[in-house]
Design goal:
This protein is 32% helix and 24% strand. By secondary structure, the protein is of the alpha+beta class. The chain is rod-shaped.
């Protein structure tokens, strides 16, 4: 019974509210309620705004991550294009240098090859190139840098690639010659050359002092400015490249150019090898050793030239 009365009361109140609302009799009440609740509603809205922004950030995180990924992919593509363009420009420069070497040696037939690997054992000084026997390579052929200086020889030739033994490899030995120093160059203790001194004038009435003996020069002595000093350029794991078997009575100065002598027939004559970096004194040895700075940067080779028109003597005798 109470439930019926409660329902009836609610219905009557609702009907009265509807009728009063239609007649706008409750407008003052609505206005009062909005006036009271508006500040509270605004404060609640401001307080809840950080929470709302947090939820929006969480919902937008997926879009941000996707946009960042797309931007990174675009940057990667642009960087790849830039790297390819720079590599192409570098290849053009290398080919221009190789063309210059070809023009400097018009009688020779040179084959350009790219360096694709190097020996990582630490016991050898060898590089691999992308040319092989199918391109006409044979073991023992001479290899030059883009500028035309000596790099090494073909050690092993396969069908599509080959291993190059650098001149700094311990198994490399090249008959070489050093350019003669200027006539005014003075001997140093390291060179082992004796320079005759001019005797001082004797006082009046005194017997003249005996002349200082002049040492006998060897056939390879640099007393003649047109002569050259011969030796063997050998690879060394510690020093890189040395010039050995130079007679100790020969004047050998720093900066002298070292080139191939052509002896033995395995290398053409006058290929630049490098320059004398330092001379090691060996008083008790008949030979002097010098350290050579290779003309080519052997640690940064990208392109080399194989001299396929020159057939070494070691191949001619096979």
């Amino acid at each position: 019974m109470r439930m019926i009365w409660w329902l009836a009361t609610v219905v009557v109140i609702s009907l009265i509210s509807i009728v009063l609302s239609e007649r706008r009799s409750l407008d003052p009440v609505h206005n009062l309620s909005l006036t009271i609740t508006a500040p509270l509603s605004s404060g609640l809205r401001d307080a809840s705004r950080p929470v709302d922004d947090l939820f929006k950030g969480v919902t937008d995180r997926g879009d941000i991550v996707r946009e960042n990924r797309e931007l990174r992919e675009q940057i990667e593509l642009l960087q790849q294009e830039l790297a390819q363009r720079q590599d192409a420009e570098q290849r053009v420069r290398e080919l221009e240098e190789a063309l210059g070497s070809k023009q400097a040696r018009p009688e020779d037939q040179l084959l350009a090859a790219n360096v694709i690997a190097e020996d990582a054992s630490g016991l050898k000084r060898m590089i691999a190139v992308d040319r092989g026997s199918n391109d006409g390579l044979d073991e023992g052929m001479v290899v030059l840098s883009r500028s035309g200086s000596l790099v090494g020889t073909v050690a092993r030739a396969y069908e599509d690639f080959a291993w190059i033994r650098l001149i700094t490899d311990p198994d490399s030995a090249v008959n070489a010659q050093a350019s003669a120093p200027p006539p005014q160059a003075q001997a140093t203790p390291a060179a082992g050359v004796l320079i005759p001194s001019t005797p001082a004038p004797s006082p009046a009435g005194a017997s003249p002092a005996p002349p200082t003996p002049t040492p006998r020069s060897s056939p390879t002595s640099t007393g003649d400015s047109s002569a050259s000093t011969r030796g063997v350029a050998e690879g060394d794991l510690k020093k890189g490249l040395i010039l050995d078997l130079v007679p100790s009575d020969v004047l050998l100065v720093e900066g002298s150019l070292i080139s191939t002598s052509g002896l033995g027939g395995n290398y053409p004559r006058a290929l630049l090898i490098g320059s004398v970096q330092s001379v090691e004194p060996r008083p008790q040895s008949p030979f002097t050793i010098a350290t050579i700075q290779p003309a080519a940067n052997l640690s940064a080779l990208d392109t080399v030239l194989i001299l396929i028109s020159f057939r070494p003597a070691r191949l001619s005798t096979e």
